[in-house]
Design a protein that fits this description.
The chain is α+β, with helices and mostly antiparallel strands. Helices cover 40% and strands 23% of the residues. It contains 11 helices and 11 strands. The strands form 3 sheets. It has a 5-stranded antiparallel beta sheet with strand order 6-5-4-3-7, with helices on one face. β4 and β5 form a beta hairpin. It is globular and about 70 Å long. The N and C termini lie far apart (68 Å).
Length: 329
């Protein structure tokens, strides 16, 4: 069974101590000790060299393997006790307190986190004072998370009202949840009976959710590999061409694309693929004067019509009319 992020983090923390005490340990022995495959261990070892003793890029863990044995070349360099700066202590304490309130967190993990937070407060001293005045909550998304997590555990169907930004509407759906995962935001993958297909739902877009008495029985589906990100366009998806000015170059960084050609004015001509081209109308409205959709023509016309309707609605609003009058003076 694939481990989740919490399990992997817990394992990697233990792995550091284990490897420090066993220089030159064999890959097969370490994998067997941790109850994982050698491929999973190698994946952990690929991440550890990106970890270090400071948020500011201090000494990193110099750990590598030749496929047979594992070597840690600088254990003494990273063994000194850490000294947290005020901003580091504040960030850690605020994050720790926020995570400890998350629904779905196992009670043993919650208690361990609270004990670690208490120790960190003692070590931070007066630096801990600033963190006490800050808080982060996950009330809305956390409540949805708890219901989805419970539905998965109890194998029950969910009813939800979900906001779709592509269509700018709320829809009511019944879904059989498959899994929870996080890629920037927290998502639920589920079989949707409205679409009669597998769909991915962002938890912060769930307006209302209810666990049903009906048992959940999603079809057997192969879980998507999310290592390349959530949005993975397919070759058969429709092609969309967007031209952006210098102020819209961020689109090429945010959206997976096939090509991005430089334009004489410093902008880009971006070609991308998406299973739902209409979802890009909101992108066109967001760009405003910094870009426009070139093709397909129907999508470009739809985006222009949406822009005209938005302007018309603005003109009908008293404040909008007033602003226009003021700008004309």
């Amino acid at each position: 069974m694939a481990s989740n992020a919490i399990d992997q983090t817990r394992r990697m923390l233990s792995l550091v101590t284990y490897l420090r005490e066993r220089p030159g340990a064999h890959v097969s022995d370490v994998a067997r000790a941790f109850g994982i495959t050698e491929d999973e261990l190698i994946s952990d070892l690929d991440v550890l060299p990106l970890c270090g003793t400071s948020f500011r890029g201090g000494d990193l863990l110099d750990i590598d393997t030749d496929g047979d044995r594992i070597w840690w070349h600088n254990p003494d360099d990273v063994a000194a006790p850490l000294r947290l700066a005020a901003d580091e202590a504040t960030a850690l304490l605020v994050a720790a307190r926020a995570v400890s309130t998350l629904p779905g967190l196992r009670e043993s993990d919650r208690q361990a986190l609270l004990r670690a937070t208490a120790k960190l407060e003692t070590a931070a001293g007066e630096n801990a004072g600033a963190s006490a005045r800050l808080s982060v909550t996950f009330e809305s998304e956390g409540g949805v998370f708890a219901e989805v997590d419970r539905a998965i555990s109890e194998r029950r169907r969910l009813w939800l009202r979900y906001y779709s930004p592509a269509r700018d509407e709320l829809t009511e759906r019944e879904v059989d949840p498959i899994r929870l995962f996080a890629v920037g935001h927290t998502y639920m993958e589920a079989w949707c009976y409205l679409s009669e297909a597998r769909r991915t739902f962002r938890l912060d877009r769930v307006a209302e959710i209810r666990i049903l008495d009906e048992p959940s029985s999603p079809p057997e589906v192969e879980l998507r590999d999310l290592s390349e990100g959530l949005v993975q366009p397919a070759a058969e998806d429709p092609e969309v061409v967007i031209e952006v000015g210098p102020g819209g170059r961020w689109v090429a960084e945010y959206y997976p694309h096939d090509s991005a050609e430089e334009l004489p004015d410093g902008g880009l001509r971006i070609t991308l693929r998406t299973p739902d081209p209409t979802s890009l109308r909101r992108l066109a409205l967001r760009l405003g004067g910094d870009g426009h959709i070139v093709s397909p023509a129907a999508l470009a016309d739809s985006a222009r019509q949406a822009a005209r309707e938005a302007l018309a609605a603005y003109d009908q609003h008293p404040e909008g009319s007033y602003d226009r009058q003021e700008q004309g003076r």
